[in-house]
């Protein structure tokens, strides 16, 4: 189903400015997260890595900077449907790590440890099914208004390192995913598949770069950040996440806006073969690392549909005379393109722009939140309440401060664009 319909254009005169306000692209369904939502990510060590959880949060921060959503990581290493690891039994875990936050959304990803790293066994699968059903029943009783998202377990990598590890373990994880997907259907819950998109990504990466591909999930179990972007993509798509950061089409011949989505555009001027304008976007591109700084994430993105699914910031300019043109933002050279390339449209999200640098500042601030989340979870699970109450209050205050700072840094900023013949 096409998720983007034709853009609309509306012109409003305010003094000497001509504004082209945001028009909402005609998605069939709106984004599932709402202002004031509280999202709890429940799971095992793969959730505790705080990668896919972080990336879902960063998407929401940068795509919807005016929306306040709380994200809580409640992953525990070694966890199963029965609990375990350092978190305690499931009936201790759920009240402390889920219900205490009064969630409006709960995601559940369990399974990697539930197969005990052995081949398929019907009894083991049944134990997993009963335990997962118990979790769903408890949520229904203690958080009845929460929207539950069932996550099919991420894969055990048998693709990039053939002949190593545990043979056919991922087929067992797929059976687990099939079981909980049926439960989700029975309960009318959202399902996101975190297995098959990663398998597809690993397969593509093995073909394009067989030397780097084994490092994407080096221990077969715990995905690196690049694979977690694919997992975040699967979750976000299940929530109808829009792919468009913003989109603008200009007519160079008339010096005018043809269409605009999710931006305010003003002061469009044509001077000879040059074009300039001011633009204030309502969203930021995703803060992917530079390819040279993180070749593994770059490989994962190149081997998946993440950028197409989530990170489209398009600029199209029609009717430029034949030639090559410099694209500048705030006076700095971004790239050089032919008139044909600009007419076909370019994706600014993949370029080193002031908007991407702003998004990376949000990413860096989020580092503090991850550290504080880890500290909070340690206090809740390992320190007696009589000792940690005041410390926990201080950590929660610090988390609120970081959340406010993240939102402040993600707010829209005006930028000045120009396209002129290359020198």
Write the topology of this structure:
Layout: E1 12-14, E2 17-19, E3 38-43, H1 45-48, H2 52-63, E4 70-75, H3 90-97, E5 105-109, H4 122-142, E6 147-152, H5 169-187, E7 190-193, H6 196-208, H7 225-238, E8 244-251, E9 256-261, E10 263-271, E11 274-281, H8 295-302, H9 306-310, E12 312-318, E13 324-329, E14 332-338, H10 339-344, E15 346-347, H11 354-382, H12 385-409, E16 414-421
Parallel strand pairs: 3-4, 3-5, 5-6, 6-7, 8-12
Antiparallel strand pairs: 1-2, 8-9, 10-11, 11-16, 12-15, 13-14, 13-16
Could you explain the architecture of this structure?
With 423 residues, the chain is of the alpha/beta class. The chain folds into 2 domains: 32-241, SGNH hydrolase (Rossmann fold), CATH 3.40.50; 244-353 and 413-421, no CATH class. The protein is 39% helix and 22% strand. It has 12 helices and 16 strands. It has helices spanning 45-48, 52-63, 90-97, 122-142, 169-187, 196-208, 225-238, 295-302, 306-310, 339-344, 354-382, 385-409, and strands at 12-14, 17-19, 38-43, 70-75, 105-109, 147-152, 190-193, 244-251, 256-261, 263-271, 274-281, 312-318, 324-329, 332-338, 346-347, 414-421. It has a 5-stranded parallel beta sheet, with helices on both faces. A 5-stranded antiparallel beta sheet has the order 10-11-16-13-14. β6, α5 and β7 form a beta-alpha-beta unit. α2 (52-63) crosses α11 (354-382) and α4 runs parallel beside α5 (169-187). The two termini are 44 Å apart.
